[in-house]
Structure formats: C-alpha cells, structure tokens
Amino acid sequence: MLNQIKGLHHVTSMAADARTNNAFFTDTLGLRRVKKTVNFDSPDVYHLYYGDETGTPGTVMTYFPFPDMGRGRPGTGEVGTTVFSVPEGALDYWSDRLSARGATGLKAETTFGENRLNFAGPDGDGFALIGVKDDPRAPWTSNGIDADHAIRGFHSVSMRLRDDGATRELLTFMGYETLETRDGVTRLAVPGAAAASVIDLETMPNIARGQQGAGSVHHVAFAVENREKQLEVRKALMDTGHQVTPVIDRDYFWAIYFRTPGGVLFEIATNEPGFDRDEDTAHLGEALKLPQQHKHLRPILEQHLPKLDA
Length: 310
Fold this sequence. Notes:
- This protein is of the alpha+beta class.
- Helix content is 16%, strand content 36%.
- The longest helix is centred in the last third of the chain and has 13 residues, at 227-239.
- The termini are far apart.
C-alpha cells in the first residue's frame, strides 16, 4: 500500500464560456483566480485555475472553457460532485448567496452526518458545500465573503460507478481507508490527512456511462510532495498493471495520468513548484502565462482569447 498520496491536489473540468466560468468562481464562490494560462494541447483555449491565496494543493478547481461546448451527459464512469469545505454554520449564508445569484439545483441534506448544500454550476456542474468544524485552512476572502463563510478548499469528490469494487481496491492501494457505506455510497479517506482527503464512491449499476462535455470533470488529481514521491507512485502503479503516462511538466506541477477501472481519469500531481514560480503572490492570475512551446503564439492568443475581469 502506498503512503505518498496526501489527498486531493486539484479537480479539472470543462466549461462552455470563459467569462461565465470566471465570474462564477471569482464572484459567486469568491475563490481567487491563481493562474490564467492555456491548454497545453489546445492553446486557443484557456486553462483557468481558482483556489485560495496561493493555489495550495487541495484548494484548486481548474477549467478548460471550450467556446460553445455542448453540455456533458451525466452518468457513470466520472466524478459526479465536487465538494467544498465551508465553516460549520455557513450553509444558510451560502443558500441565500447562491439563490440571489441564480444558482440552480439548491438542495440541503445530511450525508454521513454532515450538513450539505448541493448546487449546480453554470454548465450543470455538480457541486456541494459541507459545513466543517475547525477546517485549519486559511480562506481567500473577496467579493463580500468574510472568513466566517468563505470556502476553505476541497472536502471531497464523489465518483459515480456501475461497480465500485475495482476502484475501491485501487484507492485502498493508493493509501485510502474505507470508513463506512451508507445508501449505496462508500466513503474512503486518507488516514491522518487534515483536509481534502475524502472520496465517496456511488454505486449505480443501472445508470449508463456519462458523456463528457461542458460541466463534466475531465480528471481528478491527487497530491504528492515532490517528484521523487511521484516516481515511487508511478512505479508501484505500473507494477500492479496500470498504464501510466510518463511524467509531464505542467509548469506549476509535474503530472502523471492513468485511467481507473471505473473509467475516471486520475492524475498524480506534485506540490512543487507552485503557482508563484512565474508571478508574485500579490499578482497571481492577472497576466496571461504561456507554456514555453506556445510563447511564440502570444500576439495571436492575446487577440483571440476573451478578456476576463480581474
């Protein structure tokens, strides 16, 4: 069993409009845009990162906003809900805020003994907030959201699977521990991790496989401290039969990817070097940053990409 994985690093999804996506995460949810760059494979499309002040692993939601992309069809083989942590007692505030800003799918419930508020993003994305007592992470406060209510980072992700057996076995190998099962949902967590450590597996044997599009999660990334730990994880995964990519430099972390038995794309990402490698912390996410191979395209991209509010 591995012990290098420390919980979630980031979650990457797709959207249909960059401006709408940017406004939702920075204005409605109050997260900080910590990086404005482009998709490595499609440089005419933004890659936007939102999180806390510095983009700490376990706080960062990222998006590929493909213009006019059709909506995904929810189903199995994908992440269904991305869940953020807020202070205990803050859910009424968020219900009012989200309702006032036109969010849909608002539903309060209790799962695994935790109070939870479900809601949908602009593209039908599945989100939820969970009230957590004493989350130690410092929030980014902006757009009228104070520290008593602001998002701390991820609580968990929920994966929809036709059968959770192989994925549960994989997560156990990755260092997760099964906590309990309720109503067809199995909860796992990294022992001893303070935050962003929970994975819920929803078993849905009669649901068709999802079709990715706007509002779909592209992949979920797990955090390791550095490249040395990442290589240890890569070797262990390959030794157990998983097809893992070579290490890829993503400028702000190094990444490896592999497809899980349940269909979800996993990434293992390093906590180094971080989002301040090419911008001062005070100005994260302000300038358009380009990967080395796309820097020659700057004049074209600055004309083509839509202008975003700060």
